Structure formats: structure tokens, C-alpha cells
Amino acid sequence: MEVVNQIASVRDRLKQNRHKKIGLVPTMGYLHEGHLSLIREAKANCEVVVLSVFVNPLQFGPGEDLSRYPRDLQRDIQVAKEAGADLLFAPSVEEMYPHPPLTQVQVKGLTEPLCGSSRPGHFDGVTTVVAKLLHIVEPDHIYFGQKDAQQAAVIQRMVEDLHFPVHMVTCPTVREEDGLAMSSRNVYLTPEERSQATILYRSLSEGEKLWRQGHWLNSKDIVSFIEDQIQTQPLAKIDYVQVLHFPDLEPVHELTGSTLIVAVAVYFGKTRLIDNMIWN
Ligand code: AMP
């Protein structure tokens, strides 16, 4: 696996591989098993796997954790190689944004609910950087995690609206043994917060079980149940609990016959965790 920092080097290395199937896995680094599952899936289906590691300032709001976001490029290089990446692209901020971008990509509608309302401008930062990465790498396949379900829905729509010639693959959420969704941000949690944080997974799974048994007739009852569960943990502060149609993220009027996303965002101290499940 080669590590490059410049856009020109990525293009140069891929020039002789254009006849091969290229997969791109965009990340912000500090890799965990969730990221590695995307690399392995890419490796299984593509001949060349490009991993990007870039903490994108454009997707962080004022007061968010940009400066303290965890980073360890040397370890990322090691584990990415073991998982099968062929090229690791780790650009500097100056390389990606030589000047403040006057051009941004914005997906409307889908970016308004859930994390869009708590983190204004976040998805514009995500779609802009992913559009740039798509132009730099020109992959055949691009890989995302279901853990960030709204992000996946937003990028899928951008790909369709802007005719990017890429096939998007969404991979299942990888969890710790006790159910907590893996996230680079989990390292922020104190031991007490870490143990209470399993309530995200537990409340979503318990909710799903009851829903499958036919317990609820409307989405408000689902939200109340999950909120009550989360509030049993004294360190948890709910940002949102929402039930929407998936993947259009429209409000739900009729529970039966719909594909639902049940999504939660919860603060433990300053750490904001998200999780979701798709209920069919
Ligand atoms: P991040 O580095 O957090 O921006 O994530 C990079 C990619 O990895 C995104 O597509 C995420 O959805 C995906 N990802 C992060 N955590 C997980 C997880 N626990 N399981 C599966 N995919 C994940």
C-alpha cells in the first residue's frame, strides 16, 4: 500500500489502473472495525482500493470537535494495509482547500431533518468533500456505512442528481460486543459514559422487538418509548429521537407497509453519539 498526500499523486497512480475496477472508501481516519469492514467489502469487489483519510474542516460547525478529533495516521496506515487498501490518500487541509471554497454542493430536503437540524451546514461540508474526492479518484464504487444513514441517503441523492458515474454501496453498522456502534468518537467517553452509551443500541433493539410484535400504531409512541429508555441513563442528554420514512426521510403517517428509519442522537458530556436502525 502506498501513502500519498497530493491530488496529483493520486491521479498519477491511478492513471495506469483505469481499466481496473476502483473502489473508494472515504473516512476521517482513526480507523476502527467499522471502517475496516468497508475496506474489506471494497477489496472483495474491486481490484484497486483507495482509502482517503481526511478530517474535513468544512463539515464541522463552530464549537464542534474539529481541533480535538482523534488522529493517528501511523496506526491507520498499518491497519488499512492489513485490511487490503492499495492506496491511502491523506491530504492536508491546504491540499484539499488551497483557498476557501466559493463552490459548494448542497443537497436540499434530505439534509433538513435529523443531524441536519442539529448541525447546520454539516452536510454541505460532507457533500462538497465527497464530490471533490469523486473527481480526484473517479472510482467505480464508493463505500459508506449505515451507521451514518442520513449521510448515505444524502450522498446517494447527490450521485443521482449530479450523474456521478459511480455505484454507491452502503455497508451494515459494525458494533462493539455490547451493541455500541463503533465510532472514532467513542474514545472521548469516560468509562461511566461508555457503559451508559449502550442504551442507544438497547433502546433501538427493544423498540424494534415491540414494533414487530405489533405494539405501536403511531410513530409518536415509538419515539416516547425510546426517549424513556434513554432517559433511564443519568448521563444521557437526548439531541433527537425521530422516526421517518427511509430513504426519503419524510414524516411517517402510516406505520404499516413502510420502511422506517429510527434514528437517535444523544450527548454524553460533550460527546455526541448517533445510531439508527432500519425497520422493514
Ligand atoms: P468517519 O470516519 O466517521 O467519517 O466514517 C467514514 C465511513 O465509515 C462512513 O461511511 C461511516 O458511515 C463509516 N462508518 C463509521 N462507523 C461505522 C460503523 N460502526 N459501522 C460501519 N460503518 C461505519
Specify the biggest β-sheet: 6 strands, parallel
Tell me what portion of residues adopts beta-strand conformation. 15-25%
Distance between the termini: 40 Å
Tell me the structural class.
alpha/beta
CATH fold category name of the largest domain: Rossmann fold
Q: How helical, in percent, are the residues? A: 25-40%
The CATH superfamily of the largest domain bears the name: HUPs
Structure summary, number of beta strands: 9
- Based on the structure, what is the oligomeric state of the protein chains? single chain
Give the overall form.
Answer: globular
Could you list the spans in which at least 5 consecutive residues all have pLDDT below 50? none
When the domains are counted, the total is 2
Write down the overall mean pLDDT: 97
Q: Could you say which small molecules are bound to this protein?
A: adenosine monophosphate
Q: Could you name the CATH class of the largest domain?
A: Alpha Beta
Strand order of the largest sheet: 1-4-3-2-5-6
Provide the CATH architecture of the largest domain.
3-Layer(aba) Sandwich
Helix-strand string = EHEHEHEHHHEHEHHHEEE
Count of alpha/pi helices? 10
Radius of gyration: 19 Å
EC number: 6.3.2.1
InterPro entries: Cyt_trans-like (IPR004821), Pantoate_ligase (IPR003721), Pantoate_ligase_C (IPR042176), Rossmann-like_a/b/a_fold (IPR014729)
Main location: cytoplasm
Keywords: ATP-binding, Cytoplasm, Ligase, Nucleotide-binding, Pantothenate biosynthesis
